[in-house]
Amino acid sequence: MENINHKKEWIGWFKAIVITIMLALFLRTFIFATSIVEGESMYPTLQDGERVIFNKVVYSIHEPGRGDIVIIHQPPKNYVKRVIGLPGETIEIENSQLYINGEAYQQHFLSDEVIAQTNNFGPIEIPEDNYFVMGDNRLISKDSRNGLGFIPRDDIIGKSELIIYPFSEFGWVE
Prior knowledge:
Blueprint: H1 2-31, E1 32-36, E2 51-55, H2 58-61, E3 69-74, E4 77-85, E5 90-94, E6 97-100, E7 103-104, H3 112-116, E8 121-125, E9 130-134, E10 151-152, E11 156-165, E12 171-172
Antiparallel strand pairs: 1-2, 2-11, 3-4, 3-11, 4-9, 5-6, 5-8, 6-7, 9-10, 11-12
């Protein structure tokens, strides 16, 4: 009798482990994933080497919004950038001021020093189903201005939600 109870206990543990692994794989495949920030293009918001969890479902429910920090899949790697311009808008940077459709846009997520160092750009109209992205460290960022170009909606695979490593930086992405 004791042997049967011992066997049932092992079967119970095995089932629990299998269910846990299947749940983890489901969440990783369809809901959340991680990405490592490479380089200093998003400094000071995100730093080189930080690991972030990104939400893969959010853009199934609604479209990316201005200010979102998104994960862009362009093989062979992923990029982490901030959405600045939406489909159909016109973007221009003149005398360090960002204009969207001719209206000055306040970039509250950047320091005055970074804003002052931003070079002139545009005006340029964003095609439908595309986005204009920039890194927060404007002087060194490879982004829509200088290499990535417009980002097709299908290349945006998620929204950065949470910094999980290093542990000292653990918290929500602003």
